[in-house]
Amino acid sequence: MKDILDKFIKYMGSVRKLSDNTVESYGRDLRQYIEYIKSKNILSFKNTNKTTIITYLLYLQKNGRATSTISRNLASIRAFYQYLASERMIDRDPTVDLESPKVEKKLPVILSSKEVELLLDQPDLNNSKGIRDKSMLELLYATGIRVSELVSLDFDDINIELGYIKCSKNNDRERIIPVGTIALDIMGRYICDIRPGLIKNKSEKSLYVNYKGERLTRQGFWKIIKGYKNKAKINKDITPHTLRHSFAAHLIENGADLKSVQEMLGHSDISTTQVYTQVTRSRIKEVYNKAHPRA
């Protein structure tokens, strides 16, 4: 079973060219599923069926897993069985006609303009770490790129003179995203004054590096933003993705068209971008209820 799973993981990464995060998620979900069916003395995928999968999903529910987690697990299992069927390792795909549990769509957490300003003002510009961190935070809010894209940026992806960055989604479609003057100014300071002192190897391509002179990781950035969130005393559940959400919502709030925002975010489907119109509508209603004397 493990060998088959390893082949599937390799296929999803090298053939389907899914992101590392998605492939990791598939692997994690499917290892848990395999562990479960083995506990039921099922030692071949040929001996599983729709009932096996439904029973597993009920098991997850019984153990307090969120509907979104169960839905994601089913998506992983479905992709796996589709692969098995295409490779003729099973006679029939048991996930056909198996419905996903309905997930209540939660609106993303959005920071107000004042909260964004407060968060971005936290790094101490009197030291190298503060300048690097300020540059990363400003760039995230200026462009709306994902954190995985931020830490994947190379030095050559930046054009400060023309004011843009090059960003590739899963090393596939390249996006050219404009960068505002504030983000460009602090990035220029980081590149000229800080980065040369951090890198240990002159051939290092990474734009943002840690104190070992190596590419900063997503986990490393997570700790950084969590620290500044606590320092700013913002009472919202801020994640590295929050600045991306805030970027999109603030653009739409200020009149940007959906198609342009979709392009900048790198969404393949505009319906994904439309969630931010719901956010702005809910905020408008909130402002109305607070401000109108007869609301």
At a glance:
This protein has about 300 residues and is mainly alpha-helical. The chain contains 13 helices and three strands; from the N terminus they run H-H-H-H-H-H-H-E-E-E-H-H-H-H-H-H.
Describe the structure.
The chain is mainly alpha-helical and 295 residues long. The protein has two domains: 2-86, Tyrosine recombinase, N-terminal domain (DNA polymerase, domain 1), CATH 1.10.150; 113-290, hpI Integrase, Chain A (Orthogonal Bundle), CATH 1.10.443. Helices cover 58% and strands 4% of the residues. It contains 13 helices and three strands; from the N terminus they run H-H-H-H-H-H-H-E-E-E-H-H-H-H-H-H. The protein has helices at residues 2-14, 20-39, 50-62, 67-86, 113-120, 128-143, 147-152, 181-198, 218-232, 242-253, 258-265, 270-273, 275-291; strands at 158-159, 164-168, 174-178. The chain has a three-stranded antiparallel β-sheet, with no helix packed on it. Helix 6 (128-143) packs antiparallel against helix 8 (181-198). The N and C termini lie far apart (61 Å). The relative contact order is 0.09.
